[in-house]
Design a protein that fits this description.
Elements lengths: L2 E12 L2 E13 L3 E6 L6 H8 L7 E6 L2 E2 L5 H11 E4 L11 H11 L4 H14 L15 H12 L6 E5 L7 H17 L3 E6 L10 E6 L2 E4 L11 H4 L2 E2 L3
Parallel strand pairs: 3-8, 3-9, 6-7, 7-8
Antiparallel strand pairs: 1-2, 1-4, 2-11, 4-5, 9-10
């Protein structure tokens, strides 16, 4: 497994008590597969993604990335882990307005200490993979919403992560562009062998997933495979733990 969440509980202060955002959640995601996590607003989807990204430490439980438990790691070590092993596709692309599409990606490599020439080649490879090789010199205001989201996805893959976390990638797109972005995420997951978790409230996107899990009131339950398909090693290799 490239991403494993075991017994994750997360609470937040709520007046004199605490609100449970995640309740003994478990999730295993192997490389080369996409798990869609679906649920209503406020159900715990965003909290799940934040914990998986090691941006928020759970009250209890363990997040394991590439076989390495993150419990007890320092902030610096967690930052290094995210930079090298975890790609995050945010709901809004948040591209830097002064940078071209290629430069948006090259910044990621610069942060990781990679050589400029290699970073340029890698950026062009990824822009080609997302269908934007011809737009490499354009800035965000010159790109459509769907194109900006494609740059966002390519940027998340720049440092060759093993884990890809995707937050509501189609929320600001129309149906046609949203379907194209979802197809792209699915294809890149399989081609680049990432362990991908996609959080969404849009059930129309679920047909592209290898596995589906539903979250309600912080509790995660399996919802099987779309249309009864068996992919990515089947149910035995791709588990969602119940909370019992």
């Amino acid at each position: 497994m490239s991403l494993e969440l075991t017994g994750i509980t997360l609470t937040y202060p709520d007046g004199d008590s605490r609100l449970t955002a995640l309740d003994h959640v478990g999730l295993d995601v192997p490389r080369g597969s996409l798990t869609a996590v679906v649920g209503p607003s406020g159900s715990g989807k965003s909290s799940l993604l934040a914990v998986a990204a090691t941006l928020v430490a759970p009250d209890s439980g363990t997040v394991t990335v590439d076989g390495t438990p993150t419990t007890g790691m320092s902030r610096g070590d967690l930052t290094d882990l995210r930079r090298r092993s975890i790609g995050i596709v945010f709901q809004q692309p948040n591209l830097l307005p002064s940078l071209t599409a290629a430069e948006q990606l090259q910044v990621m490599a610069h942060i990781d200490g990679r050589k400029p020439r290699g970073a340029r080649d890698r950026a062009m490879e990824l822009l080609d993979a997302v269908g934007l090789a011809g737009q490499a010199g354009r800035r965000p205001h010159q790109l459509s919403g769907g194109q900006r989201q494609r740059v966002n996805i390519a940027r998340a893959l720049m440092n060759d992560p093993t884990v890809l976390l995707v937050d509501e990638p189609t929320s600001a797109l129309d149906h046609e562009r949203g379907a194209a972005v979802m197809e792209l995420i699915t294809r890149l997951t399989h081609q680049r062998a990432t362990a991908t978790v996609l959080v969404t409230h849009d059930r129309a996107l679920l047909a592209a997933a290898d596995r589906i899990a539903e979250v309600h009131d912080g509790r995660l339950t399996p919802a099987g495979q779309p249309n009864g398909r068996t992919k990515g090693g089947g149910a035995a290799a791709h588990r969602v733990h119940t909370n019992e």
